[in-house]
Amino acid sequence: MKINNNHGIQVNKLYKAQADEKAKADRPQESAKGDKLSISGEAAKVQELVKAASELPEVRMERVEQLKEAIAKGEYKLDSKIIAAAMLKDE
Q1: pTM for the full model?
Q2: Spatial distance between the Cα atoms of 62 and 79, rounded to a whole number of angstroms
């Protein structure tokens, strides 16, 4: 009796072919034109606003000086009702 082991070779070839196809599918597609990025109008506007906000000084020194002067002169008055309303509005 003769035992033929050709089936094992065929299975190995099939397995290798499937592995090659999977490896090819896992690779990112290469574009002949290159990558392209487009930003919507709203995203561009947000980007401009973020840039403008980052360029503003963190502390407005003119306003700080105005408040210091008003406090020193006793002219700076706080209205507790307005403060309370603003605090509740944020909640």
Answers
A1: 0.32
A2: 22
DSSP state of 74: T
Which residues does the chain have with pLDDT short of 50?
1
The Cα 84–Cα 91 span in angstroms is 11
Note the pLDDT tens digit of each residue in 44-58. 888 888 888 888 878
Per-residue confidence (pLDDT) for residue 71, from 0 to 100: 93
Kindly give the residue spans of alpha helices, DSSP state H, lying in the chain: 6-26, 41-55, 61-73, 80-90
Distance between CA 84 and CA 88 in Å, rounded? Answer: 6
Contact 67, 77 (CB under 8 A): no
Q: Which residues contact 76 (CB under 8 A, 6 or more apart)?
A: 67, 70
